[in-house]
Amino acid sequence: MTEDYIDIYELYKERIDCVTSELKDDSALEDYFRAVCDLMRLTVHIYDMHADGSFYRLSVEDKKTLLDKAYAEQTLNYGESFLNPDVASDKLGKELGQILSAVYAELISTVIYAYEEDIEALCIRLGLFLECYGAYRAGIDEGTELSATAFKTIYSDYAFDYTMDMMRYMVKESYSTDNGVAGRIIESADLTVPDYLYDYGEYITDNEVKLVKYMATLPEDKIKLMADVFTDGYIRGFAATGKDISIKNLVQLRYPVGFERVVREAAGLFAEAGLNVTYRRYEPSFAGGRQLIRNGYSSAIANRQFEADHENDRVLYYDRRYMEHRLMCYKNAHEEYKIETGGYGGPAVMECFGEKPVFLEQKESALKPDEAINALVSEYSVRASNILNTYVKGEERSFTVIAFPTPAIGDDFEAIFDETIGLNTLDYKLYQDMQQIMIDTLDKAQYVRITGRNGNETNLTVAIWPLKDPEKETAFENCVADVNIPVGEVFTSPVLEGTNGLLHVKSVYLEDMPYTDLKLWIKDGMIEDYSCGNYDSTEAGREYIKKYLLFSHDTLPMGEFAIGTNTTAYMMCKKYSLHSVMPILIAEKTGPHFAMGDTCYSHEEDVLTYNPDGKAIVARYNSVSAKRNEDPLKAYFGCHTDITIPYDELDKLSVISGDETTDIISEGRFVLKGTESLNDPFDKEI
Asked: Residue 597: which pLDDT band, with cuts at 50, 70 and 90?
């Protein structure tokens, strides 16, 4: 396939050189094509240097300069760039500006493809540029008025015609051990100096450079400890859920750029366990599925506002015909890689935290989906999940997630890093025993009532799954450090009917997005209404919640109710004022939390799992996911977002059974007999 594109690439390169000489006017449209053509010339130059080997002879400073130039329109120049839909709409008119800004944003992906030496993906995007420019030039030559519709048709046809190529790229990235740039770096680069960072094609900041330099100072035993916890959690996750890891031969590693020393060690440990490794980069192309929340290895996001401005560019082509075509291509791509998917055991994910929250502007000029498109996107998400589950069976796969801070967290980075390692290696048996005491009480509950304090207005009643045989059954999972590191929670799928009230958090950071004064009103387990204080406009706040928390659904069920027990993590957050930057992975362990969306057992409801005490966990679905066999589109939502009430905002968490009420937490402290030592970190000076 690559050979087929060599001649096409040479023709495109020659034509792009001609475009430069043809652009002589000072019109806004010529300025647009001049700017985009500069990007195309740069990515062609980057690709050629990789192809002939000259890139690898560049100095580190030259590599840095090249990379900074490739990202300049997203960073330094964004306020004046046609990438910015405000600028494009102002200079070209709103409709034409929105479309051509979307085309430009799609072409940004050529930077990554050039660094990956992916001539096929590069040519597909070069072709999009040349077709748009050709339409512009034809209009000039014929003296006809240019219409936005013409460019929209070109972009729509591009998105449709190359969907199979995009799906193949996505699936290959997920399951192929032909690991490209990441593989070469992990396997052979000198990871003690930050020079290798500029080989990724990712946006690199001082944060990544400082991280690599710090990681280089860590002794091998500390690196091995970090990797051991990570890989052991993944392997124990299979054992904890009764799954056979011996039938798997592939694990996908996702990591923040800068942690390569740990990743290299982890890859070796996985190899010893009989698992090959694939490194998945986040999706570079908006038409391919690029999102602000990145699902794969990546470095710093160059400009979050740019990502948010173009997240909905798919409205230019998204209709039922396109959705059905994309689903078909997604299925065909998995069929093409079915041997690899059959051996895939799930992802091992390393996250990072420390970057300060960014409040994103909801721009009038940015493209926005209507309800019909939102419905199609939601339907696609559910049906794509079902396709994935056919090839990567839920009852056979597992995962693990761990998180570490980066220097962006501030002056206390090194101390926080050491405390995080300690957090990730806490004695899980100690927590397991105390959590079992809680579960024994929770299993008697008809309801659990949660109320807030210190300005938190939460007043919520959660209905608990009734047990038929309490001697053999439990409603709560005793979660220790395997799939979710660090240790510290018990969780259940609540009964939706009878789950009512207000969930309120004063400040929270969910999936890299900040929320202030977040309120969700729950009726029979479903979100009935919502608001936040992120914006002066109530409607802007609602739009923000619907987009980033509800993932454009009209409502979501409460898929999980849990009690986080990691008071050590909570006190670390308090000591260093980390609540605004702490990832959900750790934040969910620092108080009771509630997940909106699918349950923790999504697509695995019929897989019986057990707690360490031998009791079967029976609360694995709710009245929504119960529809999975008759109507999967109504059973799943493709999202699961945890919202935590920190202990200092928590008044009471009480178990209600008939006329009897038993407090597990009162005024933010654990009061159930046998769990009091969880309060010890509260009493230590910080």
From this structure: very high
Beta bridge partners of 552: none
Q: How far apart are CA 260 and CA 255, in angstroms?
A: 8
Q: Does residue 622 contact residue 495 with C-beta atoms inside 8 Å?
A: yes
Chain centroid to CA 662:
38
Model pTM score: 0.89
Element (H, E) at 520: strand 513-523
Where do we find the tokens 């597909």? 124
Residue 650, φ and ψ in degrees, nearest 5: -105, 125
Element (H, E) at 492: strand 489-492
Q: What are the contacts of 267-272 at 24+ separation with CB within 8 A? A: 267/186, 268/227, 269/227, 269/228, 269/231, 270/231, 270/234, 270/348
Q: What angle do CA 413, 415, 420 make, to 5 degrees?
A: 90
Strand partners, 353: 405
Residues 531 and 117: their CA atoms lie apart, in Å, by 46
Nearest to 556 by CA among 586, 587, 588, 595: 595
The strand pairing partners of 491, in sequence order, are: 477, 562
> Three-state SS for 31?
helix
Buried b (16+ CB within 10 A) or exposed e, 261-296: bbbbbbbebbeeeebbbbbbbbbbbbbbbbebebbb
Q: Edge-to-edge strands of the sheet including 558-564?
A: 477-479, 489-492, 558-564, 592-597, 640-644
Let me know the angle formed at the C-alpha of 289 by 285 and 292, rounded to the nearest 5 degrees. 85
Q: How many helices (H) and strands (E) does the chain have?
A: 24, 19
Alpha helices in 93-217 (DSSP H): 94-107, 110-115, 119-142, 148-161, 163-175, 180-188, 206-217
Taking the domains of the chain in order of start, what are their residue ranges? 2-161, 173-315+331-371+384-391, 426-683
Residues 6+ apart with CB under 8 A from 641: 510, 511, 549, 584, 595, 596, 597
3-class secondary structure, 498:
strand
Confidence of residue 1 (pLDDT cuts 50, 70, 90): low
Ramachandran sector of residue 667 (left: φ over 0; alpha: ψ -120 to 50; beta: rest):
left
CA dihedral of 179, 400, 566, 681, whole degrees rounded to 10? -50
Dihedral angle over CA of 42, 44, 47, 52, nearest 10? -110
Q: Which residues contact 170 (CB under 8 A, 6 or more apart)?
A: 283, 288, 289, 330, 333
DSSP state of 247: G
pLDDT in tens, 657-666: 999 999 999 9
3-class DSSP state for residue 118? coil
Q: Residue 231 has which token pair?
A: 């890989």
Q: What is the pLDDT of residues 413-467, one digit of tens each?
A: 999 999 999 998 888 788 889 999 999 999 999 999 999 999 999 999 999 999 9
Sign of torsion, CA 105 208 515 568?
A: positive
Q: What pLDDT shows up at residue 587?
A: 86
Amino acid in the structure at residue 293:
I
In 176-291, alpha helices (H): 180-188, 206-217, 220-240, 260-272
